[in-house]
Write a structure and sequence with these properties.
Elements lengths: L8 H7 L27 E3 L2 E9 L6 H13 L4 E6 L21 H7 L3 E3 L6 H4 L5 H12 L1
Parallel strand pairs: 2-3, 3-4
Antiparallel strand pairs: 1-2
């Protein structure tokens, strides 16, 4: 266990030798980065290629899955990501923090917080089922929920 600011023995050692003229983790030095990935949606209706359907029982990879879907939605404003959950009341992801009342954030709550649409097989809209909804209709529906 280290009792100083360094995360490793090597960092501590080098800070007093070849890196002694350097500042360790200076404030404001953080930089963002992204790692390119390719997403393959679970389903796309042949009449509507801009609506991506993702089927989930739960988020298998936990928080990293959640981050991935948020990035997909953000980086593709010309598409709409729609979740089809078996049960939106299920715990959002493994490792999800327990709340003071003993509950966990659900898949549906996670979608709502991130302004992502979700349905179940029981309330899947006819317009999505038959492909008659375009991006405009889906976004109008989404706006009616989130505004």
């Amino acid at each position: 266990r280290y009792e100083d600011k360094f995360k490793s023995t090597l960092e501590r050692s080098l800070s007093s030798s070849c890196l002694q003229n350097y500042i360790y983790e200076p404030p404001g030095s953080g930089i963002q980065y992204s790692v390119p990935h390719t997403y393959h949606p679970d389903f796309i209706h042949p009449n509507q290629k801009d609506i991506l359907i993702e089927v989930k029982g739960y988020m298998v990879k936990g928080f990293s899955d959640c981050s991935k879907y948020i990035a997909i939605a953000k980086d593709n404003p010309d598409k709409e990501l729609v979740f089809l959950f078996s049960d939106p009341r299920k715990k959002a992801y493994p490792g999800c923090r327990i709340r003071s009342d003993g509950t966990y954030m659900s898949l549906g709550e996670w979608c709502f917080r991130n302004k992502l649409l979700f349905f179940t097989p029981h309330n899947f809209p006819d317009g999505l089922f038959d492909g008659s909804w375009g991006l405009k209709e889906l976004r109008d529906y989404k706006k009616s929920i989130y505004d």
